[in-house]
């Protein structure tokens, strides 16, 4: 067993290193990913060890970066693209949703585009405008794209490996405020399926379903609720497209209540689809309506106000109280 405690950022770095070592067709592209090692140092040291032909510093042109990656994938490469910050992805949105997501269907399955697009996302780091967005619902809505987000170092390591190995395009959302959270990573483990949700904490009274940065918040809420005699189950969804509805249904059939938590605005967020689908599937099991906790339907605020914007322990526990009051 090769288990080591490391931050999520280091786990991602080790995972990318492993992919570069394993498959010569894997390439890393993006703004400042080479000499600088990325603004969060996720690609630190990789250009030095694998060369400028494998770890490529690109111009500041997200549309061009993704367009180039699509062309390289068509020639048999497996590009891993970094979008430096979440809010910078939109110049590339056209390439992603009209080309990357559609090519497999357009070619009647004859063409595969194994492209991974890494997006550090979410708030909590005191950044300026366009650096704290949570745009996952915009991509989860698009058929042809897979969207995932790890919540811990171990998942970051293994989910990145699985995303790169996938023949489908994967949008890999990295919760940037969890980059420095440490966890055990077993580099010799056998990982479960990429899109399978996992129970992060067992409980009997209510299910908290979350992904990425909000899983830690939900675990903290479950620990706080336990002191009041309440048993909350925390389900780490890990994937926003496809969603593991079977796992959510199984949990809700045990607990009979569901609260979905994400940083992105509640309005038309991924929690909306989960709430609708679980209401259809579990109507006769639910003791309360499915509730959602998330950001407000407003532009992401200046850093001094982000603590008021982001879902926190109190807002999660307030939803728990409302659900248990039915």
Provide an overview of this structure.
It is a single chain. The protein has two domains: 4-185, Thiamin diphosphate (ThDP)-binding fold, Pyr/PP domains (Rossmann fold, 3-Layer(aba) Sandwich); 198-325, Rossmann fold. 35% of the residues lie in helices and 21% in strands. It is built from twelve helices and 14 strands. Helix 9 (245-255) packs across helix 10 (270-281). The longest helix is centred in the N-terminal third of the chain and has 15 residues, at 8-22. The protein is globular. 48% of the residues are buried. The model has no long low-confidence stretch (mean pLDDT 97). Residues 6-181 form the Transketolase-like pyrimidine-binding domain.
Strand and helix map with partners:
Blueprint: E1 3-7, H1 8-22, E2 26-30, H2 46-50, E3 55-57, H3 62-74, E4 78-82, H4 93-100, H5 103-106, E5 116-121, H6 136-140, E6 146-148, H7 153-165, E7 170-175, E8 182-186, E9 198-201, E10 206-210, H8 214-226, E11 232-236, E12 239-241, H9 245-255, E13 258-265, H10 270-281, E14 291-295, H11 306-309, H12 313-324
């Amino acid at each position: 067993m090769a288990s080591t405690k490391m931050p999520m950022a280091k786990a991602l770095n080790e995972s990318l290193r492993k992919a570069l070592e394993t498959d010569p067709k894997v390439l890393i592209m993006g703004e400042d990913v080479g000499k600088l090692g990325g603004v969060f140092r996720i690609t630190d040291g990789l250009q030095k060890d694998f060369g400028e032909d494998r770890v490529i510093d690109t111009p500041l042109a997200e549309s061009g970066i993704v367009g180039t990656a699509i062309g390289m994938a068509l020639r048999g490469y497996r590009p891993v693209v970094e979008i430096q910050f979440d809010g910078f992805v939109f110049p590339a949105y056209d390439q992603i949703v009209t080309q990357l997501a559609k090519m497999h269907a357009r070619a009647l399955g004859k063409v595969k585009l194994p492209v991974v697009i890494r997006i550090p996302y979410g708030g909590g780091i005191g950044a300026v405008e366009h650096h704290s967005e949570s745009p996952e619902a915009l991509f989860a809505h698009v058929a042809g794209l897979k969207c995932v987000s790890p919540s811990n170092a171990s998942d970051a390591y293994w989910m990145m490996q699985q995303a790169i190995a996938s023949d489908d395009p994967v949008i890999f959302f990295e919760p940037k405020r969890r980059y420095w959270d440490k966890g055990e990573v077993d580099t010799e483990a056998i990982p479960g399926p990429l899109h399978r949700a996992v129970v992060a904490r067992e409980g009997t009274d209510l299910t908290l379903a979350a992904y990425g940065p909000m899983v830690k918040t939900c675990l903290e809420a479950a620990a706080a609720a336990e002191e009041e005699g309440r048993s909350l189950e925390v389900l780490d969804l890990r994937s926003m497209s496809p969603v593991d509805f079977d796992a959510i249904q199984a949990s809700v059939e045990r607990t009979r209540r569901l609260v979905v938590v994400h940083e992105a605005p509640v309005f038309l967020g991924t929690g909306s689809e989960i709430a609708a689908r679980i209401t259809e599937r579990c109507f006769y099991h639910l003791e309360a309506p499915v509730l959602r906790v998330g950001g407000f339907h407003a532009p992401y605020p200046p850093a001094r106000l982000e603590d008021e914007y982001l879902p926190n322990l109190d807002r999660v526990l307030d939803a728990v109280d409302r659900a248990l009051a039915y």
